Amino acid sequence: MRTVKTKTLEIAYFEHGSPDGWPVVLSHGFPYDIHAYDEVAPRLAEVGARVIVPYLRGFGPTRFRSSSTMRSGQQAALGKDVIDLLDALGIEKAILAGYDWGGLASCVASALWPDRVAGLVSYAGYDVIDVNRLGRAYQPSLEQAVWYQHLFQHERGRECLALHRRDLCRILWKQWSPTWAFDDATFDRTAASFDNPDFVDVVIHSYRFDFGNAAGDPALADLETRLAEKPPITVPAITIDGTQDPLKPGGTADHAPMFKARHEHRAVGCGHNLPWEAPHEFADAITTVQGWCGFAS
């Protein structure tokens, strides 16, 4: 494990492969961590990638550098963290790949800073949050699946996450990946990342901001305004759906118009935690995008 300092964070990350390889950043989701890529990263390193796998803000050893910094979990913060990480590592351009919060971060970075992104692999399509849309109801079957988001809007939700974070997150793992047979050791290895002192604040702010129930970081207001305009993604991209994911009923193939460069949509027979459940398919999507753009450094 290594760390690097940005203006806001000291980001902990693992690096695989040659430092001269083509850079790819793999961003994890909630409630997961870098171990989601334990099988993806070596596959990419074997074919010449320099693989950077960071802990997101609020997870694992990543820390805020100042106690006065807002513990924001909003999408602009997550996307900017990726670009700040590239800056700190001296990487001009990289392929970005992720799912859940990591897919959100990768899509935001690709939409707002396309000159820094060689290509994109996004689980669940154009994964930029429409805050205005989240103020209106969805079908009851989907509202049921996102029960945790509703819980987090209340102080009892903050208390539940603070006191029972492992139990709550394990329930989400089971519900979102109904056919994935993970063992206790696998969960416990990742659950240690939830002990980050900022985990609860970042998670709660993330979902309250998404629902319009918490103000964002004023320093990120301009970025959020741009995201509200639904900027298209103009870099080569592959989007992927898990056909057994209860959070994405019907999939996201209809997001295709948001991708203006070469784009392909794939469906994989798995749940929400695609890099862990289907590492070969996730790695293949990344190498395919790398081949499309001829990205070498």
Spell out the blueprint of helices and strands:
Elements: E1 2-5, E2 9-16, E3 22-27, H1 40-46, E4 49-54, E5 63-64, H2 75-89, E6 94-98, H3 101-112, E7 117-123, H4 140-145, H5 147-151, H6 155-176, H7 184-191, H8 199-210, H9 221-228, E8 237-242, E9 263-268, H10 274-277, H11 279-293
Parallel strand pairs: 3-4, 3-6, 6-7, 7-8, 8-9
Antiparallel strand pairs: 1-2, 2-4, 2-5
Helix pairs in contact: 1-11, 2-3
- CATH C-level class is Alpha Beta
CATH topology: Rossmann fold
Mean pLDDT: 96
**Strand portion, in percent?**
15-25%
Following the backbone from N to C, one meets helices and strands in this order, namely EEEHEEHEHEHHHHHHEEHH
Which structural category fits the helices and strands?
Answer: alpha/beta
CATH architecture: 3-Layer(aba) Sandwich
Number of helices: 11
How many domains? The number is 1
CATH superfamily: Alpha/Beta hydrolase fold, catalytic domain
End-to-end Cα distance, whole Å, is 23 Å
Keywords: Hydrolase
Protein name: Alpha/beta hydrolase
Organism: Rhizobium changzhiense
GO molecular function, one term: hydrolase activity
Question: What are the main properties of this structure?
Answer:
single chain; 297 residues; alpha/beta; Rossmann fold; 9 strands; globular
Describe this structure in words.
- With 297 residues, the chain is α/β, with parallel strands linked by helices.
- The chain has a single domain, classed as Rossmann fold (3-Layer(aba) Sandwich), CATH 3.40.50.
- The protein has 11 helices and 9 strands.
- The protein has helices at residues 40-46, 75-89, 101-112, 140-145, 147-151, 155-176, 184-191, 199-210, 221-228, 274-277, 279-293, and strands spanning 2-5, 9-16, 22-27, 49-54, 63-64, 94-98, 117-123, 237-242, 263-268.
